[in-house]
Amino acid sequence: MFAMNPMTTLSAIRKPGWRHWLVALALVTVVSATPALAALGGDVSSVQKDRARFKASLQLSTAAHHTVHELKAPTGTTIREYVTEDGRVFGVTWQGPWRPDLRQLLGPYFADFQQAAKAKRTGRNGPLTSRTARLVIEMSGHPRAFQGRAYVPELVPADVPEDEIQ
Amino acid sequence: MSEPRRVLRSVLCMIAAAGCGDGGGGTNAGNSIAPPDGVNAVAIVVDSGPLGSNGAPVGYVNGAFVTVTVCVPGTADCQAIDHVLVDTGSSGLRLLANDGKAGGELSLRLPPLEDVGKKAIGECYPFVDGFTWGQVQLADVRIGGEMAGGMAIQVIGEAAYPVPDPCLGFGNDEDTLEGASGLLANGILGMGTFVQDCGPACATAGSGNPGVYFACSSSAPGGCVETAVAAGAQVSNPVARFATDDNGVIVELPPVPAGGAPTASGSLVFGIGTRSNNGLGSAVVIPVDDRGTLTTVFPAQGTRYPQSFIDSGSNGIYFLSGAATGIPTCTGTGGIERFYCPPSPMVLSAANQGAGGTPTSPVSFSIANAKALFASNNVAFSNLGGENAGLPSLHLPAAFDWGLAFFFGRNVFTAIEGAATPGGAGPYFAY
Questions:
Q1: Of chain A residues 12-31, which have a CB less than 8 A from chain B?
Q2: How high is the pLDDT of residue B73?
Q3: What distances in angstroms separate CA B144 from CA B134, B189, B415, one per listed residue?
Q4: Other C-beta atoms within 10 Å of B127: how many?
Q5: Is the pLDDT of residue B1 over 80?
Q6: pTM, whole model, 2 decimals?
Q7: Looking at residue A3, what DSSP letter applies?
Q8: Domain segments of chain B: what residues?
Q9: Strand ranges (DSSP E) for A63-166?
Q10: Contact B307/A138, CB-based, under 8 Å?
């Protein structure tokens, strides 16, 4: 594991409300000693855990009925987490040269992903596209250019088109 | 099917300077093999893959395989490994160990790459939805008549060190020949547009390091920790390390009938415009960006998909979704439902565009009924396709993955980043 570097991550926060994140960071520093914690399906505080795990900067943007938390990791990978108005992460995406730790990002849905990856193998070496009632996951690319997204259909707000999760 | 293949293989073995393994966990380690003769090509075979534990081929579809010989550096102590997958989507040679679990062929003992503290270097390398783990070792790599001396390769297997915990976040461990996460190949020969498999990101410690390389001091949990490896010492594209013909490769595969073929034979040619057999001719050069991606326009005057790529290690042409294209997907479960199954073959038009916006090169391709293709005894298909994304308006992860199906009937050039060629400097694809 790389050592935590709170100064680097702090300096990357430029959005208003950073004092709030300072408090969160204190919690995160403690939490980071424990194993991966859920993002997908978790509450909005799990975005902060992801930010700490990926040593990322964070940008917020608000759509009509959800919020997008964009994490830029120093590895060059961008992660977006889609959060409902009542604070649940219903979708995640990633794009960049390296894939993020999917245990961290998918949380309780990581095993669903593993199962989907095994199931696709029938005659298929290429992208993963899997859709079940529990999880939709799509992964494409090749080493040094990966992209993917995952969402929990039952958590997607009724007025958010699924193609907004990008 | 095994009898024709045996004949074919013996022919290929005569063509390939490196010779062939026995396909069933070869034990020819230690054989002295003649030095490379400078021939800048090696035979490609598209067949059902290496023999599995039951003695039958593992059942690969659209896999392009070559034989690669590795030697203890500076010696004639060598082993030829057959059925190594030709992959223009990655860089570096990775071979499955014959260690009792992995089920591969490599049994030759190679020296490890070590850091300054004499710790063995391991690597956790991510592919699209899984990873390979194993030690980095040093070998003279001979392919056809060319050699890359003393270079780092990944030996896939856990004999020395178990998979480190951070690696598990990449997904499933693809370190066996067979099984649900099996490679179905004795190794992967990455000859993509990159020189190194990681590059500068892995050469520096810190938060920008993606955690691909590990320094291993013990087989106990936590015995391997993330580390930095200088770019020149990383697992790299062997072609970039050849003495000549080091600017790229051509994958040459013949056309196959609409219903496919039981095997196909072609060539992996080294160098672009360096000899009489590897000129660009009329091929259109399509530059890629620093991630190896180009833009596919589909339909030909339609939507741009800028994360597209040409990847001989993918078996089909994967793009969009049934909902987006209107092409029916196959009915069923177990993975078949993500392939396209039109009632009759469809001819489609797209265009590939350089990452900088030019040039734009039209490409016509066909998609046939995957269920019907799989139901035949054939394994080489130019019209196998499937889904790569959910919805037409997606920017992510919608892309075209031009897998091996695209390669039949085309000579596809892959130029390495920074390398000079008659078509300009790499990285690019051309066809």
A1: none
A2: 98
A3: 26, 13, 19
A4: 25
A5: no
A6: 0.87
A7: P
A8: 2-241, 283-418
A9: 66-72, 78-84, 89-96, 128-131, 136-142, 145-151
A10: no
Q: For residues B245 and B241, what is the distance between their CA atoms, to the nearest angstrom?
A: 9
Mutual orientation of helices A18-31 and A45-53 as an angle, nearest 10°? 70
SS3 breakdown of chain A: % helix, strand, coil, rounded to 5? 30, 30, 40
- Residue B126 has its nearest CB partner, among A8, A98, A136, at A98
Tell me how far apart the alpha carbons of residues B338 and A164 are, in angstroms, rounded to a whole number. 22
A49 Cβ under 8 Å from any chain B Cβ = no
Nearest to B105 by CA among B6, B43, B176: B176
CA distance B383 to chain A (A): 14
CATH superfamily of B2-241: Acid Proteases (2.40.70.10)
Nearest C-alpha of chain B: how many angstroms from A16? 24
DSSP assigned state of B273: S
Per the CB < 8 Å rule, is A146 touching B339?
Answer: no
Instruction: Give chain B's mean pLDDT.
Output: 90
Interface of A with B in 109-148 (CB under 8 A): 113-114, 117-131, 136, 138-148
Cβ neighbours of residue B397 under 8 Å, at least 6 residues apart? Answer: A93, A95, A127, A138, A139, A140, A141, A147, A148, A149, B307, B388, B389
Q: What percent of chain B has pLDDT over 70?
A: 90
Compute the CA torsion angle B284, B289, B292, B294 (nearest 10 deg). Answer: -50
In this structure, the dihedral spanned by the alpha carbons of residues A123, A106, B176 and B65, taken in order and rounded to 10 degrees, is: 40
pLDDT digits (tens, 9 = 90+) for B4-36: 333 333 333 333 333 333 333 334 444 556 677
The strand pairing partners of B78, in sequence order, are: B31, B71
Q: Which of A95, A97, A143 is the closest to B125 by Cβ?
A: A143
pLDDT level of residue B102 (50, 70, 90 thresholds): confident
What are the tens digits of pLDDT across the range B30-78?
Answer: 455 667 788 999 999 999 999 999 999 999 999 999 999 999 999 999 9
The verdict on B89 touching A (C-beta cutoff 8 Å) is yes
CA gap A22, A19 in Å, rounded:
5
pLDDT in tens, B306-349: 889 999 999 999 999 898 889 999 999 888 999 999 999 999 99
ipTM of this predicted complex?
Answer: 0.88
What pLDDT digit, counting tens, does each position of B202-260 carry?
999 999 999 999 999 999 999 999 999 999 999 999 999 999 999 999 999 999 999 99
Residues of chain A with pLDDT under 70: 1-38, 161-166
Q: What is the pLDDT of residue B33?
A: 65
Domain positions in chain A: 6-156
Which residues, 6 or more positions from B66, have their beta carbon under 8 angstroms from its beta carbon?
B16, B42, B43, B44, B45, B84, B86, B143, B189, B268
| H or E segment to which residue B141 belongs | strand B130-143
Residue A16 CB partners (closer than 8 Å, separation 6+) = none
- CA-nearest residue to A102 within chain B is B169
| Contacts with A106 (C-beta within 8 Å, 6 or more apart), sequence order | A39, A40, A92, A112, A113, A137, A150
